Amino acid sequence: MSTTLLPTTERALLRRLALEQREGRVPSLIAGLVRDGETIWVDTRGWVDGEPATSDTQYRIGSITKTFVAVLVMRLRDEGRLELTDRIDDHVPGTAVGDRPVWQLLAHNSGLSSESPGQWWERTPGVDAERFVAALDDSQVRPHPQHVFHYSNSGFGLLGELVARHRGADWFEVLRDEILTPLGMHRTTTSPIAPRPRGWAVHPWADLVQEEPAEDAGAMAPAGQLWSTVDDMARWSRFLSGETGEVLHPDTLVEMRTPTSVDDADAWTAGIGLGLQLSRYRGRRLVGHGGSMPGFLSTVLADPAERTGVVFLANTTAGPGAGLATDLLDILEEHEPRIPEPWQPSGADPALLELTGAWYWGPVAHVMRVLPDGMLDLAPWRGKGRASRFRPNGDGTWTGLDGYHRGELLRVGRDSEGRPNHLDLNTFVFTRTPYDPDAPVPGGVESWR
User: Which residues pair with 247 in a beta bridge?
Assistant: First the structure.
């Protein structure tokens, strides 16, 4: 089912998938790879009612559901209907975390319990929103400091209710209208629509299986209710890489991909953004989410820098993990590394050339370059230190996009003849020569000696 890969690459990918399915004793397993906006490989092992799964077979995707809810919340923010610093009580009053800001729920920093009140919500029928909200009392708040990561399924149940109240409709209706339909993800639903496998638990000491229940989670559905396919999840991987269409502003997605805390203690290789799981793996910066529900496991990851992504779906309670996903990315990189596009002139505005070249922050040399997209890049000459890109504001000023100077304003100072002679970057003054006496260096300038 590949479109562009070499036979040797396909075989290596299939072998890795086959090993995972056999050694992990997974009833059925399907995976796909994305590169440059296309699904370049899909393959499957195992059986669904005696037939191989296809890219249209629905599996439960569990907590990947949370990434959709997070996007719905950020859309509300972008429309001005809420601020991330708003208290939860401003939107869904009556819970023990009503004084916590919205962003803390998105980032799993609120201290709310990991699971909902009552029985194990993933295997029992859910309750309605009114009963769910009322049950989020003091007993559901954990003693962790609010700035510490503590994964909370309940938090996303609460965010789903926030979305529903703002839109005056069920959270999934909002999701369908605002995200799924515009992106063409028509096989992502709250209840399964055939073809779909049954969810199995595999006995740990014998080759036996037991069917898992699949109940409607009610108010907890925003935490993990969705079913989807490899095709739809491949599209979602592309979304996470930046192909947001008209659904979300790309800058908002970058904001969601920015780490808020670390979730793997001393290793510092995994973290959380706003509703998105983040990881660093062999120089890659990956974004996405894993999912598990009784009888099902799933993962969707994207590498925005490389415009690649990976998806897998399985119908087993335990087994495949993120290692399968990263191994598939490794095989793609090893067998078919990306060939860089040829360099060609970008047609940047020649007027920006006067800003390029050497600038000095005190005695420290920096270099300003014009990027192909018309932005500026200011970085230390020797590569160590504070570097940032800057986007034009249309009035001669520039705003930092990343690094130490994210969000800070860059102003260009000029001499009496209109030539740039200093940069004012939030009180840091950069000059054409070290501590140029003709520039307004804070504290004044003495002679070199």
Answer: none
Cα separations (Å) of 332 from 40, 345, 447? 10, 30, 58
Read off the amino acid at residue 425.
L
pLDDT band at 264 (very low <50, low <70, confident <90, very high): confident
Rounded distance, CA 2 to CA 13, Å? 11
The Cα–Cα gap between 383 and 386 comes to 9
**Which segments of 139-263 are extended strands (E)?**
200-202, 209-211, 227-228, 261-262
Cis bond upstream, residue 195 (ω within 30):
yes
Check if CATH label 1.10.10 holds for domain 350-431: no
| H and E: helices and strands count for the chain | 10, 20
Domain locations along the chain = 7-335, 350-431
DSSP label at residue 123: S
* Per-residue confidence (pLDDT) for residue 384, from 0 to 100: 82
CATH for 7-335 is: 3.40.710.10
The predicted pLDDT at position 219 comes to 96
The conformation of residue 353, written as its DSSP 8-state character, comes to G
By C-alpha distance, which of 32, 2, 6 is closest to 17?
A: 32
Looking at the predicted structure, is the pLDDT value of residue 330 above 50? yes
CA distances from 389 to 195, 374, 431 (A): 47, 10, 18
